[in-house]
Each structure stands twice: as structure tokens, then as C-alpha cells.
Amino acid sequence: MTMQLSLNPLVRELHVCSKGFNLLTFTNKILYMKIATYNVNGVNGRLPVLLRWLQESMPDIVCLQELKAPQEKFPLQDIENAGYKAIWHGQKSWNGVAILSRGEAPQEIRRVLPGDPEDLHSRYIEAKVNGLTIGCLYLPNGNPAPGPKFDYKLRWFERLTKHAAELYRSGERVILTGDYNVMPTELDVYKPERWVDDALFRPETRAAFHKLLEQGWTDAIRKLYPGEVIYTFWDYFRNAYGRNAGLRIDHFLLSADVDKDLVIAGVDKFVRGWEKTSDHAPVWIELKDA
DNA sequence: ATGGCAGATGTTATCTGA
């Protein structure tokens, strides 16, 4: 017996009906998987917002950035109570990344981006989950630019690009997602002329992102919404969210055999309107027939 | 062009973010 899932409202209905199960399955076959990324800007301060969003959005896999919590202060009990297994790499005050899964526990592959033993920032964690290799990343901001922080950003980008090439060649189904701190094109930034000298938009930064894409990766949001203004970040100043003065800096990069299963994607922009919210909104994709 | 806001640390402010 088979069931064809062609319409997303049907998928959503089945997903709600399957509450309590780790993955939506039918005759033991995975029909649908939702994967999200969310820069929470402080996982403990953001906990009520994070838990509310998890309950409403019900992603199967979640990548978090900017935990801003040491390893021992990760709110594991609350995350588990919400139905998720988790691995994370914390750091006092800043950075910090995590991978959550409603299905099998994420099997950690690495928690450091290769290439610089002296880089102690918690900005990368990678795991195998549900047959996917998930790289969760928080690329350095790089401001002020030029300067040592910008140099660090570009070096980190080079390490990511080198590692991404190996992942792409591995033949695994790979997703590299997180806060890239890059607006890839002028379409991805409100008033681009004001950002040309910023570390998130400088020519070197955009060139690094495009060089990464040239390995074959698909920018999932841009593929599904070509030409549309879509933002994932609005700063806390000057009513940026109310004016939709945002940036698109949180991205999903998919290897070719993940891209072929891409059904839909979106930004949970409404979360940015909640009280005590992050300056980023969650971004998600949905894959069919893994 | 500037400074505005927010989180963490742990002070009566500093650092960082984007």
C-alpha cells in the first residue's frame, strides 16, 4: 500500500496526527522531514521562545547557533521534554552550536571545523541524523572590516570551503546550514549601498560564499524563491522588523541528492515578532522520500 | 552617518553582535 504526498497541507495534517512519534512514517518509509536552523541569540534567555517555536513548527531536525552558554548550562532537560535528543558545543558568553533531533539521536561526527587547532570558538558541529550529514555552523561576523576579525572570518570561510569540498565528494547526503553572516546578493539586504563596506557584504565575503556554492551546493531558499526579497535577520534598532529592514544571512546549502528531495522551504518570520525574541527568525526546509 | 537594542558576565559597566 502506498500513499502519495503531493500537497503540503496533507503533510501538515499527518504531521499533527503523528504527534508523539519521532518521524512521520508510513509503511516504515520516511515520507517527509522538516529541518530548521535558528540563531537563538542566547539559548537560556530565549528558552520560552525556543520551546514555543518547537511546539508550533515541529521540525524533525534543528540546528541552533549562538547558544551563548557554557557546555554545562545547555538546557538539555527542557529540550528533551520538548521531544528532542541533542548534541551541542557550548562556550562561555559567546558562540555555541547545537543539533536537535526528534528521531534518532544525532550521531556526532565532529565538533570542530578542521584546519586550525588554535581556533577555540564553538562555531561548528556535525552529525549524522536520519541518513543525512548535517553541518551546523556559525560563521564569524568579521566586523570591523578590514582588521583581524575580518581576517579571521575569511580564514574560517576558507576552512569551511575546504571541508565542504570533502563532504561534497563523500557521496553522503549533506546539508550545511546555519548563520553564514553573508548576504549573498544585493537582493538579500535592505539598502545594499549602506552595507558595501560591512564584513557581511564586502566583495571578499560574497566571493567566498559564491566560491562555496560553485562546488555544487544549492541555496534552498533562493532556489525556491528566485527574485523574492526574503530576510532572516532584523536588528533590534530603529524598528527594523516593523520596517522590514532586514538581511538574509541564515542559509541552507544542500548537496545534489538532498536538493532533488527538496519540497518547500520558508522563514518563520512571525517568530521575530514575538516578545523577548531573537534578532534572527528560524529558517526551514522540507524533504520528501528520504 | 550615527546610534540605536539585546544577551552574558558580573559591575554599577564592558564586550560582542550584524
Quickly list its features.
manganese; metal-binding; Deoxyribonuclease I, Chain A; hydrolase; disordered N terminus; alpha+beta; globular; DNA-binding; Endo/exonu/phosph_ase_sf; six-stranded mixed β-sheet
Walk me through this protein's architecture.
- The protein is an alpha+beta fold and 290 residues long.
- It has one domain (32-288): Deoxyribonuclease I, Chain A.
- It is built from 7 helices and 16 strands.
- The strands form 4 sheets. The chain has a 6-stranded mixed β-sheet with strand order 5-6-4-3-16-15. It has a 6-stranded mixed β-sheet with strand order 7-8-9-10-14-11.
- Helix 4 (148-169) links the parallel strand 9 (132-138) and strand 10.
- The longest helix is centred in the middle third of the chain and has 22 residues, at 148-169.
- The protein is globular and about 45 Å long.
- The chain binds one DNA strand of 18 nucleotides through loops.
- It comes from Parafilimonas terrae.
- The active site is at 138, 179 (proton donor/acceptor), 280 (proton acceptor).
- Mg(2+) binds at residues 39, 66, 179, 181, 279-280.
